[in-house]
Specification:
With 267 residues, the protein is of the alpha+beta class. The chain has one helix at 2-46; strands at 76-81, 88-93, 96-103, 111-112, 117-124, 134-139, 145-150, 152-153, 156-157, 161-165, 175-182, 190-194, 197-201, 205-206, 210-213, 215-223, 232-238, 243-249, 259-265.
């Protein structure tokens, strides 16, 4: 009995020692692996992340502009295309292209010009090697503003219509300044009104500036001397301290009513 019991315990002890050995080996392997993984994790965490060096981009410089500055006392000129007879035009002063691709209904900004007499030339846009459609001479004088309007004639475009502006004068607080310009060959003389302030203008006539209160007005057009209701009624917003020109230009293609442009003038 004692031998049996002793014999039975031998395998149990042997198994226990084997298990302990394998457990110890497993633990050591686990520690090595854990250390290796920890080392790898630390490596990737501490390793500097490479960043791409930005490639410089050569951004083209903006095209120099010749807009008026407050210190510039030269004359200033803008152009308005009021004619579908030349839907897109280039405007030259002498042989220099000054206003490029001036399309129908476009009102340009003012640009400075020298104090001298120029030959103004109108050509179809982007057509360099061709004669002008129309030309005229004009002398620009000190510290004045001019508007040049491209207007129609029966069989084409008329010589540019040029008149002086006066947008630099002081304004009464709370007031704006508005004037009316009839530049449509296709329209007869018109009675043009801002609410009850009216004037009658024929083709190629420009009104004096009116000082008006800030607000929204009904801009109406009717044939002069006609008691019928206006054939155009539009809202016109006037802000205090601002100067506006209202251009009546040729009707758009296929229409009979003129196009009306309320433009805020600024230098």
């Amino acid at each position: 009995m004692n031998d049996v019991t002793h014999t039975a315990k031998k395998p149990q002890e042997s198994i226990s020692r084997s298990q302990a050995f394998y457990l110890l080996v497993g633990a050591m392997v686990a520690l090595v692996m854990l250390g290796g993984l920890t080392g790898c994790s630390g490596f990737f965490a501490l390793r500097p992340v490479p960043t791409e060096t930005a490639t410089p981009t050569n951004t083209p410089l903006p095209t120099p502009r010749i807009d008026v500055t407050p210190e510039d006392d030269r004359p200033r000129l803008r152009v308005v295309n009021a004619s579908l007879r030349v839907p897109v035009a280039d405007v030259y002063l002498d042989n220099r292209l000054y206003f490029k691709s001036t399309y129908y209904s476009f009102v340009s900004t003012y640009l400075p010009v020298d104090r001298k007499k120029y030959r103004l030339k109108i050509k179809p846009a982007d057509v360099v090697d061709t004669d002008s459609i129309i030309e005229r001479e004009w002398e620009f004088k000190d510290d004045r503003q001019y508007t040049m309007v491209l207007v129609s004639k029966t069989n084409g475009i008329d010589e540019p219509w040029i008149f002086e502006d006066n947008i630099k004068g002081k304004l009464t607080p709370g007031k704006g300044r508005v004037r009316l310009i009839h530049a449509s060959l296709d329209m007869p003389a018109l009675e043009i009104c801002l609410d009850d302030m009216c004037d009658v203008l024929a083709f190629k006539q420009v009104d004096d500036y009116m000082n008006v209160d800030e607000g929204v007005y009904n801009l109406t057009l009717r044939v002069a001397g006609n008691v019928a209701p206006p054939f155009v009624t539009l809202p016109a917003t006037v802000e205090a301290g601002q100067v506006y020109s209202i251009f009546i230009i040729d009707p758009q293609q296929g229409e009979i009513q003129p196009r009306v442009i309320l433009h805020r003038d600024s230098l």
